[in-house]
Design a protein that fits this description.
Blueprint (H helix, E strand, L loop, with lengths): L7 H9 L5 H19 L2 E4 L1 H16 L10 E5 L26 H8 L3 E6 L33 H8 L5 E6 L5 H7 L2 E4 L19 E6 L2 H11 L17 H4 L8 E5 L9 H16 L3 E5 L7 H16 L17 H12 L2 H14 L5 H24 L2 E5 L14 H5 L6 H6 L3 E9 L2 E9 L4 H15 L1
Parallel strand pairs: 2-3, 2-4, 7-8, 7-9
Antiparallel strand pairs: 1-3, 4-6, 5-6, 5-10, 9-11, 10-11
Helix pairs in contact: 2-3, 5-6, 7-16, 10-12, 10-13
């Protein structure tokens, strides 16, 4: 087997046994990027020299007795996560030449664990999208079918993992941006609970739902990454002091007595026949290993999309105000201050960023704030309460991740149709709950993902269910 095709678990065992070196592993990934990324365009920046230096350092640390699951493991990071001394563009012209002065906390933790950063991955500009077609620099292709999108907004990360360019990648999930592309590319994508992993060093999109998380080749690999990046951060007041479970120990427990809820609103007309059949097959496979299922109802689910896009656009309008051509990023100097603002923002932002800024500014404006933003927050509270109450009766929820397989590039030009891509993934984000997308089969040779949604800070049950499911699927 080629080294770049290994899982984190497999590579970690080989590194510990001195069968391979991190330099060899890193070179295998870099060679794969050179071989295939010209077609896929998953990477915006490749740091070959820096990666090989980090790999060499990891080998030396291992030789001196350091151990760790991620020591010497090569990965890629979504390009809205700050990396010291390396460009962080957020897929936008306005940050085309921005070099971050510090590492995001999740990058810092991976660096301390000895993981090797290969570079940065493509995304929809400022993570606004569900296809990675909105990047200012390139259009990422789905490795399983180059005529189709990889999903978004973490499409570059999902494509890179699916194409074996790295052993894992970091993404960010605001309203499905890890889970959606994970489903389209046939990889595992974990959105931790809001507050489980630090947002410090993430370029903010929707501050009340943004979460960094892993995209991996297996659930066990996602567990290994989460164990490293989770935890309280003094730089992020939204991180929680909740205990971090020993996931390694918990995921291998059997599933006897586990009860999963099936929300009837997620199994509606509009879900592709092939997707529905694969989800039903997965349910039957879970039953064989001791899981019980009950049908539940989440009637407020139908409001998730409008609520999410009002809140998201509003927070985007506020968060993107800092990109004004003065402190950092693109600055077009003209006659006066107002001209700098207008020219820099007009030339720096793409169409989708501008659309969301305008929608959000409208929703927050005098006379409309109560009718839109405040009302959306009230309904969000209802959605959260409803999901919490449902999860008091069951251990987690199971749904399709996306109602269909990856669509063709340029097939969805209508912004509203693109927003509806998030129909099954926004609920967990609005409620701040952990959720994972796991591959469950292929429809017309394209991957389908199933989604598990857990109780707040109970990533362990999702990892346990996913691990056991992948074990029987092998």
């Amino acid at each position: 087997m080629k080294l770049n095709k290994l899982t984190i678990k497999e590579a970690s065992q080989k590194l510990a046994a001195n069968e391979i070196t991190s330099v060899e592993l890193t070179n295998a990934c870099l060679d794969r990027i050179k071989e295939i990324d010209g077609e896929i365009k998953a990477c915006l920046i490749v740091c070959e020299k820096e990666a090989l230096a980090e790999a060499k350092k990891a080998d030396e640390q291992r030789a001196n007795g350091k151990i760790g699951d991620l020591l010497g493991i090569p990965y890629l990071a979504k390009d809205n996560i700050l990396t010291k001394g390396i460009k962080t563009t957020a897929g936008s012209k306005i940050l085309e030449n921005y070099i971050a002065p510090y590492d995001a906390t999740v990058i810092k933790k991976l660096k301390q664990a000895g993981a090797v950063l290969l570079g940065k991955t493509n995304l929809d500009e400022f993570a606004h999208g569900a296809s990675t077609e909105n990047s200012a620099f390139s259009l990422t292709h789905n490795p399983l079918d180059l005529t189709r999108v990889p999903g978004g907004s973490s499409g570059g990360s999902a494509a890179a993992v699916a194409a074996d360019m790295c052993l894992f990648a970091l993404g960010t999930d605001t309203g499905g941006s890890i889970r959606h592309p994970a489903s389209f590319c046939g990889v595992t994508g974990l959105k931790p609970t809001y507050g489980r992993c630090s947002r410090f060093g993430l370029i903010a999109m929707t501050s009340s739902t943004d979460v960094p998380g892993p995209m991996t080749k297996s659930v066990e690999d996602a567990m290994m990454v989460l164990q490293v990046i989770a935890g309280v951060d003094k730089n992020d007041a939204t991180t929680a002091k909740e205990k971090i479970d020993n996931y390694q120990k918990l995921i291998k427990k059997d599933l006897n007595g586990i009860k999963i809820g099936l929300p009837k609103e997620y199994f509606i007309k509009g879900v592709d026949k092939g997707v529905k059949q694969l989800i039903e097959q997965a349910i039957e496979e879970f039953k064989k290993i001791g899981v019980k299922f009950v049908e539940i109802s989440l009637p407020y689910t139908k409001y998730s999309i409008p609520v999410y896009y009002i809140i998201t656009s509003s927070e985007i309008s506020s968060n993107l105000a800092r990109f004004d051509g003065i402190k950092y990023g693109l600055s077009i100097s003209k006659n006066d201050l107002m001209d700098v603002y207008l020219k820099s923002r007009s030339n720096g932002f793409g169409p989708e960023a501008k659309r969301r800024i305008m929608l959000g500014t409208y929703a927050l404006s005098a006379g409309y704030y109560d009718a839109y933003y405040l009302q959306a927050q009230k309904v969000r509270t209802k959605i959260k309460k409803e999901m919490d109450e449902a999860l008091e009766k069951v251990d987690c929820l199971l749904t399709p991740t996306v109602p269909h397989v990856a669509f063709k590039i340029n097939a969805k030009q209508d912004p509203l149709k693109m927003y509806l891509e998030d129909i099954f993934v926004t609920g967990a984000s609005l409620a701040g709950l952990p959720a994972i997308s796991i591959p469950c089969g292929f429809d017309h040779k394209l991957p389908v993902g199933l989604q598990l949604i857990g109780k707040r800070f109970d990533e362990a049950i999702l990892l346990r269910l996913g691990y056991n499911f992948q074990k029987i699927k092998k």
